[in-house]
Write a structure and sequence with these properties.
With 429 residues, the protein is mostly beta strands. The protein contains no helices and 40 strands.
Length: 429
């Protein structure tokens, strides 16, 4: 027995929401949608036979024989979905629904620039058409977007039929930009100014440094030494580039100051081993002494020192000064310390074994410093009676008669000068 089952009144399409669709209504779906769920109200003991008007658009994946089936939508177009219910009494009823399948949109995104660029720059991504709704992977929903960060960008669109799809993707890579910076060492006229690169970069390396020194000169490298020849204000610029081609620059004003002039006086203008003290007076303007170097291994930071030279010779005394801008200058003068050839020689002696005045022995200043020494005694006929090269050896007068004797002392002093002294001594016995 075949009869109509009034309880089959609609086919239900389960999408994201359950939708009741009466017979002869049109159900709209999108091409390529899988797991499309259709159902009718369940009657216990009934079986359900589902058929498609065409097999080229959709395929029944599962559920035939039950109240619920699953379809895969293969192509766009229009087709009928039929269902027949047969109850436990073999009574049957039919229902149908028209399904219209719309093609999915095929969005395409593109850029007009290089997908790899430097930090601080940007890239514009475009959609190929207008859609009912757009949602970029970064959350924006305009027809075109400007991107500043590295990422994989794509677009999800929905057309007027409610069909959605994902576009192609574009990989964007942003190279880090260097941060140009430098420091300055030295701001004094006629002195070397050193410009030192202190630029940084988060990744990669800085490979190029170009300097505009502001006085018509240019240089390259991470460290530049330059002589600014006159006092002035210079605008110095540094241009750096990374290994990925990203650039940055920085400019600084550099004031070059006039250097101080070191000057000093001294008195007396020469010294000697007997009078080795010299007074120095700083005459520099707008500068203070850093230190004095006396050329004998000693130094001081006293502004107006007094110095004692312990040995004869020529000493280069240097005064180093500094001003409030840390500019330096120095000046030097040669100081001559003469050797005083002083000997204390008695005019008589008495070698009579009483313990007093037994030797004729010269005494002098700095005799131990002599490079050579010779002491000779002659009698009145010019005969040599005594000779020594030992400064500590004197003539005892033994085997000699009382009377006058001539003496000569010949030395080479510590300065290398040859000196001589002559005289007479009375031997008294």
């Amino acid at each position: 027995m075949v009869r109509s089952l009034k309880k089959i009144k609609y086919i239900i399409l389960f999408l994201f929401l359950q939708t009741n669709v009466s017979a002869q209504n049109v159900i709209r779906v999108c091409e390529g949608d899988t797991a499309q769920n259709f159902a009718v109200p369940l009657t216990l003991g009934s079986t359900y036979n589902w058929t498609l008007g065409t097999q080229s658009i959709a395929t029944i994946v599962s559920g035939n024989g039950s109240e619920h089936i699953v379809l895969d939508i293969n192509n766009s177009g229009v087709f009928w979905l039929h269902v027949q219910e047969i109850d436990s009494n073999l009574c049957s009823s039919k229902d149908s629904v028209l399904i219209k399948v719309f093609p999915k949109p095929n969005p395409f995104i593109y850029s007009l620039g290089n997908n790899t660029f430097c930090e601080g720059d940007s890239l514009t991504l475009f959609s190929d058409s207008l859609y009912n709704s757009l949602l970029w992977s970064n959350g924006l929903n305009s027809d075109s977007i400007q991107v500043y960060e590295s990422d994989n960008y794509y677009l999800v669109v929905t057309d007027t039929n409610g069909c959605s799809n994902i576009s192609n993707s574009i990989d964007v890579y942003v190279n880090p930009k260097p941060n140009a910076e430098f420091r300055i060492d030295g701001v004094c006229e006629e002195s070397q100014t050193v410009l030192i690169d202190s630029s940084t970069i988060s990744s990669g390396d800085i490979v190029s440094w170009n300097w505009n020194l502001g006085d018509g000169n240019y240089d390259t490298g991470p460290l530049v030494s330059h002589l600014f020849k006159k006092t002035d204000l210079y605008n110095v610029s540094l241009y750096v580039q990374s290994d990925s081609g990203c650039k940055d620059s920085v400019s600084k004003n550099l004031q070059i100051f006039r250097a101080p002039e070191a000057k000093f006086n001294f008195f007396p203008y020469s010294a000697s081993t007997l009078y080795p003290e010299i007074s120095f007076e700083n005459k520099s303007e707008n500068a203070i002494p850093i230190f004095w170097n006396f050329g004998d291994g000693t130094e001081t930071d006293i502004e107006n020192p007094i110095h004692i030279f312990s040995d004869p010779g020529t000493y280069k005394v240097i005064l180093h000064v500094q001003d409030t801008n840390n500019c330096l200058d120095s000046v030097s003068h040669d100081i001559i310390v003469f050797y005083d050839f002083l000997l204390y020689i008695p005019n008589s002696f008495t070698p009579n074994l009483d313990g007093n005045n037994e030797l004729f022995l010269p005494k002098g200043v700095r005799m131990s410093k002599y490079k050579d020494y010779e002491f000779i005694i002659y009698d009145r006929w010019g005969v040599e009676v005594f000779k020594t090269k030992d400064i500590y050896e004197g003539w005892d007068g033994k085997n000699s008669i009382s009377g006058k004797y001539a003496w000569v002392i010949m030395i080479i002093d510590e300065m290398g000068a040859k000196r001589e002294k002559f005289g007479e001594v009375m031997l008294i016995k």
